[in-house]
Structures are given as structure tokens and as C-alpha cells.
Design brief:
The protein is α/β, with parallel strands linked by helices and 288 residues long. It is built from nine helices and seven strands.
């Protein structure tokens, strides 16, 4: 029995190390133009480890309610996921500035939010918009300890990279969530990329123009991450003050005016191209 326990402990340690290591390597690839260095790599490793740990704790806290038949999706999304994302962002990278807050819809109607995708940081900083989102994410995320389970608990939609059946299921689930009043958040470019423009794909705009749910308006969002987001020493501004640190934020999120889907009269190609132009319009030249 002792040997079995030792093997299980070793396996658990391997899993809890492998996922943060993999995420760190992905961030090194995303920031390959500026490099992460030792500090940045260490921060990325610890960041994903704490993301897993805090998400796992949130799952355990909500599990009794789930077993009793309560719908925990909104609490899991707008409280646990949002606070974990925002606090980890502040702790590891610093202030996040939101421009165009007046463009964030507050009337309770469901929209499709879209943004460029640069890093795993994007997921965390977008919670500063303080909206309830259903993410469209790749299915492999479900296997990340803690993170995958809280995503399932929050009702996010997991998509296989390939396969018509998976895409059809994604559309069906997205439409159901929109009808329930949930916003859908999508990254139309798909793969993460900081140094060049990846063309948008049609998925978000096909969903927005689906006949069986009517025209759903689209909110374009731009995410600009600091080149030094991972590399600088920062922790809640204790050393030099939060207000001063806002002059050099870790991330700037720009919310653009809502795009009226009905006005495009079914021309998703035109809407997609205009949305891409809007999203990239405020980003640094070197990053596009």
C-alpha cells in the first residue's frame, strides 16, 4: 500500500508540474519577440500553478451546492473565476486599464464579444470588464486540473479544433446560452499571436447572424499587453504605489462601440473584416 501511495503522489506531483511547465513554455513562445527571461518564466509557472490551485479550491467550495441540485454557473463565473483572474493579474503583472467603459452594454441583453488573442493573460484581464461570459475554448483545457473543472462548472463551451460535429455542437450550445442571457466571448483569430495579424474566422459572425436566434450584436474588444508584463517586479504596487503604476499598465483593454449585426444584412464577410480592422486599430504597430 505504501508503494501505491508513493506512486500516486509521484503521479500527482508530475501532473501538477507538467501543466504549469507547458503553459510557461507557451508563454515563452508568445513573447518570443521580447523574451521572458528567468523571472518571467518563473512568474508564468507560478501563475498557472496558483490559477489551478485557486480554481480547484473554488470547485470544492461549490461542489456541495452542485450535488444538491443548485445552478452554480453564475456564481462560479462572476464571483470565483472573475476574482481569481483579476487578483492574479494584479498580483503578477500590475494594473489593468479599461478604455471605453461607456461602450460596455449594461441593458442585460446578450451579446457576442470578440477580441484579439495574445497570451493566456487575456482570459484573466478580460474579467475586468465585469461581464458574465461563456468562453469558447479548446477542449484540451478541460484536462487542466482545477481550471478545467471550474470551466465545466461555469458552463463554458469546449470545442475540438477539428470536426464538423464538434462545431455544430458548439453552435447549438452557444445559441442556448445566448437565449439564457449569457454573453459569448470568442477569439476569432483562433491561435494566440502577438507579433502579427492572424485573419479572423467566420465563426463568431455566423453565430451572430443565426436565423433561429435573430441578429445578435457584436462588441469588439482590443487587448494590448505590455512587453514587460511577465518580466517586471510587481505585486499590488506595494513598492511604488498603485496610482503611479497605472502610468505603465500591464494591459490596456479597449471596448469599442457595439456593431449592429442587423445593419450588415447577412454580409458576414463585411462584418468580419470591419471587426478585425476595429480590433487591431488601437494596437501598437510593432504588434500587428
Amino acid at each position: 500500500m505504501a508503494s501505491v501511495a508513493l506512486i500516486l503522489k509521484g503521479f500527482a506531483a508530475l501532473v501538477l508540474t507538467a501543466f504549469p511547465l507547458g503553459a510557461m513554455l507557451q508563454e515563452r513562445k508568445a513573447f518570443r519577440d521580447v523574451g521572458l527571461g528567468v523571472l518571467g518564466s518563473l512568474k508564468a509557472f507560478i501563475f498557472i500553478f496558483l490559477w489551478m490551485a485557486t480554481s480547484g479550491a473554488a470547485v470544492l467550495l461549490q461542489l456541495p451546492l452542485l450535488i444538491l441540485g443548485f445552478d452554480v454557473r453564475e456564481r462560479s463565473n462572476t464571483f470565483f473565476e472573475a476574482h481569481i483572474g483579476m487578483q492574479l493579474s494584479k498580483l503578477f503583472m500590475g494594473p489593468v486599464v479599461v478604455n471605453g467603459e461607456s461602450n460596455i452594454p449594461r441593458d442585460g441583453k446578450a451579446r457576442i464579444f470578440i477580441a484579439n488573442h495574445q497570451s493566456m493573460i487575456d482570459i484573466c484581464v478580460l474579467y475586468f470588464l465585469r461581464q458574465k461570459f461563456v468562453w469558447i475554448s479548446k477542449q484540451s483545457v478541460a484536462f487542466i486540473p482545477g481550471v478545467g473543472q471550474i470551466m465545466w462548472m461555469s458552463g463554458h463551451i469546449l470545442l475540438k479544433r477539428k470536426g464538423k460535429a464538434s462545431i455544430k455542437q458548439m453552435f447549438a450550445e452557444s445559441k442556448a446560452r445566448l437565449k439564457e442571457g449569457w454573453n459569448i466571448f470568442m477569439f476569432p483569430q483562433g491561435t494566440r499571436e502577438r507579433t502579427k495579424v492572424l485573419p479572423f474566422k467566420h465563426g463568431a459572425f455566423s453565430l451572430a447572424m443565426s436565423e433561429d436566434i435573430g441578429n445578435v450584436d457584436v462588441v469588439p474588444v482590443s487587448i494590448e499587453l505590455s512587453d514587460n508584463a511577465w518580466k517586471r517586479f510587481f505585486g499590488y504596487g506595494f513598492l511604488w504605489g498603485w496610482e503611479e503604476a497605472k502610468a505603465k499598465p500591464a494591459a490596456i483593454i479597449t471596448v469599442h462601440p457595439t456593431m449592429n449585426t442587423a445593419s450588415y444584412k447577412g454580409d458576414k464577410e463585411k462584418m468580419m473584416n470591419e471587426a478585425q480592422e476595429i480590433v487591431y486599430s488601437v494596437l501598437k504597430k510593432k504588434n500587428i
